[in-house]
Each structure stands twice: as C-alpha cells, then as structure tokens.
Amino acid sequence: MTTAIRVENLGKRYKIGTAPAKFKYGMLRDVFVKKATAPIRWVRSIGKKQLILEDQPNYIWALKDVSFDLQEGKVLGIVGRNGAGKSTLLKILSRITEPTRGTVTVRGRVGALLEVGTGFHPELTGRENIYMNGAILGMKRAEIQRKFDEIVAFSEVEKFIETPVKRYSSGMYLRLAFAVAAHLEPEILVVDEVLAVGDAEFQKKCIGKMSDVAQQGSTVLFVSHNMSAILRLTEETIVLDKGKLLMRGPTQQAVDYYLSSGQSSSGERIWNADEIPPNAAPFRPIALRLKNKQGKVIETVRSIEPLMIELEYRLEAPLTGLRVGFYLSSMRGEYIITSFDTDDSQKYEQYGARSSGHYFSRCTLPADLFNEGRFSLGMNASSFGVRRYFQDEQVLTFNVDISGAPGTHWAEPRQGLIRPRLDWEIEKVE
Amino acid sequence: MAEFVKSEPITVYIKPSTRLAGLNLRDLWSYRELIFFMIWRILKVRYKQTLLGASWAIIQPVMIMIVFNFVFGTIAKVPTDGIPYPIFSFTALLPWGLFVNALNQGSRSLTANHNMVTKIYFPKMILPISSVLAGLVDFAIGFVVMIGLMIYYEVTPAWNVIWALPFFLLLSIITALGVALWLSAINVKYRDVNYALPFLTQFWLFMTPVAYSASVISEKWQLVYSLNPMAGVVNGFRWALLDAGNGPDAALWVSVTISILVLVSGLFYFRNMERTFADTI
Fold first, then answer.
1. Is A25's CB within 8 Å of B116's CB?
2. Which terminus of chain B is less hemmed in, N or C, by CB atoms within 10 Å?
3. Peptide bond before residue A282 is cis, with ω within 30 degrees of 0
4. What is the structure's pLDDT at B65?
5. Could you tell me if residue B257 is inside a domain?
6. Cβ contacts (< 8 Å) between B31 and chain A: which residues?
7. Which among B15, B120, B276 is the nearest to A136, CB-wise?
C-alpha cells in the first residue's frame, strides 16, 4: 500500500477584520495611510514585546497542526461543525489556497468538487457547459468527448442538452453539474458537501456514484454534515474542531464521538461572529435554544412535556420570501421533521417580507412525540428558490427522557424514533 | 489512445511558499485547452441576447470614427499627413479598440469569475489571457471594414505590411496583456481599479496618436512620447497600412522594450499574488 496523501503539521491562518469577510479586500487609500504611518508605529513598538505568531490579534487559525496519512484507495470522512476547518483543509489539498505552515504530499491528480457547476454559464447550452465545466475541472477535450454520452445519461437531461441552462429547473442544473464532476476520475477525489443540495433521489444517485469511484481504487476525501452518508461511504473518519484534529477512527466511533462530545449539549447554541460564514449576510444567526414550558433552557427533554424550539437571529437588511426553520434528525442522520416559521400561508403573507431587526422565531413541539434517545437539531434560513442564507445541519443534540411515557411500565427499549401517546380502543365483541 | 495508459501518478508537494514564485509556464501549457475553452465561452456569451449581435464589433469603431471625423477632421482640422481623416483614424481605432477591450475585460476577469478562483485549482493567468485574446475576433471583424475603407479610398499598403502588421498586432497584445495582468491582480485586492480604469483608458487615448498624428509632437518630446507603447503600435499600424510616417525608428525600440518590461513584470507580479487570490478575492 502506498500513501496517497500525507499531511504534516498543516496550519492555515486567516486575517480577520471587523468588516465582514466579503468586504475584506482593502482600499488603496488604507495602504497609503499604513505605509505613511509605518515609521511612527515602528518607533512606538520599540521596547514592546514582539507578539508571537500564535497570539496576534485579528488572526485566526482556521487549521492548526493537522497531521494524517491516507493510503491509496481508501475513503476518509471528515466531520466537524461550521468553521471547524474542513473546507480550508480541502482547499489546501486541492491547491486553491496555500497553507501558512506545514506540508502536504499528494500522489496523483486531485479532482476537487467543492461546488457543483463552477464555470457554468446560464447562456450556454447543456452540451456547451459540459465541455466548459469539464475543461475547468481539468479534463482534456478528448476525455470529455469520450465520456460525453455517459455524462448526459447520468444527468437525465438528454432532451434539453441543446437548451441554454438558464431554462433548466434547479434540479436539472444540479444533476448536469454533478454528472460532469462525477466523471472526472481523478486518482484523488476531494468532495465537499455537494450532496447537501438536490432531492433525496438525486442524493442517493450521487452517493452511489461516489462509492463506485471509491471502488475503482480512487482515494476519496469526503466532507459532509450528513452522518448517514458518511456512515455509508467511509470506513474511517476524522473529526475536526476549531481547526484541530480531535480524533481519527472507524467511522461509527468517530461519528458517535463527534455527535456526543464534539458539540454543544447544553440545550443552547450561541454563534460567535467568527463561526458565521460571511455569505450568510444579511442573515445573522444568534442562538438556537431548547426550552421547557416554563421558558427555561433545558438539556434533557422530557418526552411527556411539550418542547419549545427558539431561533434567535438578526436581519441586517430587509429580506423577502424568508423562512427560518429547523431540521430534526436522528443521530444516524435520518430526518424526522423539517419545519419553517412561515409554513403557514397566512404567516407567510405576514412575515414573508421582513424588515431588518432582531427576531425570535419560536415553535412548540407537542408532548408525547419522541422516543427515548438522542436527537439532533439543525437550522436553515433561506428564501425558497432564491438563496440559502444559512444552514447548519448539526447545531446541537439533546437527550430525551421518557419517564412517564406510554408503555414505560414495561422495562424494555421500544423500536422507533417517535413514541406518540396513541388512543387505543379496545373492544370486546364476545 | 494515450489517456488509457496508466502512468505513474505525479507527486505534488504543497507547502507555504517562501521565495519568489517562478512563472511555472509548464502548468499553463498543460491547461492550454482551458484557454481555448474560455475564449470560446467569452465569444459565445458576449453578444447573447443582443439585437445586433456581433455587428457591435463593427458599430463601435465606426461610430467613434464618425465622431472623430466630425470633431477633429471637420471642425478642428487636425493635420493627417495628407490622408483622408476617416481612414486615418480608423487605422488607429482598430488596435486601440483591441487594447482598450483587453484592458477592460482582462482587468475584471478575475473578479468576474471569482467562483472559479475560490473553488477550483487552475493557473489563474488563463482568465486575463483568454479575455485579451478573445478581443482578436472583434479585431478581425473590424479589419474587414478596414479593407473596405482601403478599397474605397484607394489606399495600397507598402509591401512591408506582411511582417509589420503581425508585428504591431503582437506588440499591442503584449502591451495589453502586461497591463491586464497587473491590473487584474491588483483588482483582486483593491477594487479601486474598477473606478480608475475609465480614467486610465481616457488619458491613455489622449496620450496616443489616435485622433491626431504623432507628427504634431515636437521633436524633443518624441522620445518621451514613445514611452507609451501604444503610440508605437498606432504609428506602426499607420505606417504598415497607409504607408504614412517614417516607419520603425529608435523610438519604436523604446516602445518595444517598455511593453516587454510591463509584460514580464506583470507575469511575475501575477504569479506572486496568485497565491493569495482565493483568500482575498
């Protein structure tokens, strides 16, 4: 077995400013001012202790001292919450950005799928975009030609292949984009959360294609928030948190570790400014809380009591068509509920367009809903068909205590994720 | 077929760069097909959803020529060394249009494709290069008009047009590419470029003998004047196509040197800034 990827003491430091990252690029004027005042600052700094690299303010280590090896032909999962450094790691591996420290040795051609449809142009037809996108991903013209029919068949858009992609539905667009990327056949495939998009059917197809790629002997690095996808695709997984590698182990173990210890279990999750992706603006999540009837934040939910989910956020600009909601899922990544605050059409009329300001969206889940176990809550804020402002599928986890629930007088675990109190009718006919 | 041969995979070392980045033109060469595809995409998309389509490539220089003819030819009566003003200015507008387009499109090429810059690895130089080269198609369309004008005014070029035209065309591309490399890389970090560009091109137009003849510049300023490589290009075009002026002289070599300097420094500057593009764009 040869090593396909060797990562040694990898670190990446970013400068953080007070301005959102989107507007981080400077103005020439600032540079002139800085250069002009440099001698003054230099004189002032004499005598002061030099700050060591680590402690400099306004810098953040997106990745720090990360080391691992990956054998050829293996599939490695990467989990961690938003801002844990997953994307930074992938960007370094695919040579989009340089590390600040450390080295990576990569053996083979790296195909990076950090986003589907990069370089797609709405005015070009499906056929033209396949060639364009293939070339951008590093395929040769002959290679694209050879795989063209296969790509079209996979994407299921044969009939529209001569139509500009701006006329495509979002599903067709995604299928075509993924189809091109899936036929890249690199020695090393790096995949970031591309499966978070598209419908369940399509996700299934993508996962199927990726396991094919892995079986053909490619080395795969796979980042996802979808635990069931990670469990299905990978044998080994690493857990990242705040730029550090917390653990590496068999996927089941790593996922358990990540879900139970790696994240908040306090019944409340508060976002720090540096944890919010810059492209979330103007939506800024503040907190997600679990509360009981009395309005107290709770860690453990009693199944016989109603549960209030509270989403706190700010809008820095007015938004139209906004919906803010949650995902509730099992620890295995199966979704149980997806619900948004403007699901009710009257609510949507009233709050679909929201002015900027500080908001709470609350909802109460009825009592007698959950079965015993651990559940995970995620958050989503989007305008349907327009933009997803913020998404975090693993905001916090909580335990459900079932004392007093129906059937607990039998000391046995019950199958199933939910345990509603059902109104049984027993009729004696004879 | 060659791609079926499973060759020993190449090993890539990724580490923080400490030295000046090399040009790594080999990497650029291996992505040469992408340059072709990018040019093709630019051309495909350029005149989409326009009524007049590619005829804009003709309308633009012709309209400017008409305006110039009215202002400088009829009202101001600028000396043109005896050449009819329309063809005099159009000969200059051809390379000038190529240059300005290249500058405008090239400088914005990175920020306009910021998705590609942050999500995919490829030699980023491909973006300004393909923007500059795509302008050659408009140049070719405009050249058809040029030939028409030459027939109408019964102008026959000198025999040296055979080497002079490609040479001066190359010089204008080198100049445009050099400046576009500088500006596009600066634009990633400082968006001031977007605001400075319209002024820059306008000043540059006045510094270049497009509307007037270079012969109006007094002798002692000629050398300073030739520091502008586009002056050399425009004079060269007039000399090659209309047999006007003195032809290549010492001033031309100043222009050539300057444009090569701009290109080489632009290449190095771009390569060194490229490392931080994805983080700063």
1. no
2. N
3. yes
4. 87
5. yes
6. 138
7. B120
Q: What confidence tens digit (pLDDT) does each residue in A216-264 have?
A: 888 889 888 667 678 878 889 999 988 899 899 998 888 878 766 545 4
Q: Is the CB of A104 less than 8 angstroms away from the CB of B34?
A: no
Total residue length of chain B: 281
Q: How many CB pairs under 8 A join A and B?
A: 120
Residue B130 inside a domain? The answer is yes
B69: which 2 tokens? 């003819």
8 Å CB contact between B276 and B123: no
The CA distance from A124 to the nearest CA of chain B, in Å, is: 7
Q: Which residue of A has its CA nearest to B44?
A: A124
CATH 2.70.50.60 range(s) for chain A read 268-401
Q: CATH 3.40.50.300 occupies which residues in chain A? A: 61-260
Does residue A21 have a pLDDT over 50? Answer: no
Least confident of A367-376, A392-401, B126-135, B148-157: A392-401
CATH topology of domain A61-260: Rossmann fold (3.40.50)
Domain-located, residue B114: yes
Closest Cα in chain B to A96: B121
Taking contacts as CB-CB distances below 8 angstroms, the residues of chain B near A106 are 11-14
**Mutation target among A9, A25, A64 for the B interface, most CBs of B within 10 A:** A25
Predicted-complex ipTM score: 0.81
Q: Which helix (H) or strand (E) holds A324?
A: strand A322-330
Q: B16 vs A128: CB contact, 8 Å cut-off?
A: no
Rounded to the nearest 5 degrees, what angle is found at the Cα of A245, between the Cα atoms of A241 and A248?
Answer: 115
Q: What is the pLDDT of residues B91-114, one digit of tens each?
A: 999 999 999 999 999 999 999 998
Residue B132 Cα, gap to closest chain A Cα (Å): 18
> Which is nearest to B240 in space by CA: B164, B155, B148, B144?
B164
Measure the CA dihedral A318/A319/A322/A327, to 10°: -70
| Residues in B touching A29 (Cβ below 8 Å) | 192
- Backbone φ and ψ for B218, nearest 5 degrees, come out as -70, 155
| Separation in Å, CA of A365 to nearest CA in chain B | 40
If one counts the domains in chain B, the total is 1
Q: Could you list the residue range(s) of the whole structural domain that residue B203 is in?
A: 20-71+78-280
Chosen for mutation from A136, A191, A218, A279 (greatest number of chain B CBs closer than 10 Å) is A136
Binary contact (B9, A123; C-beta < 8 A): no
CATH class of this structure's domain A268-401: mainly beta
Q: Is residue B10 part of a domain?
A: no
Task: Show residues of chain B in contact with A102, CB under 8 Å.
Answer: 15-16
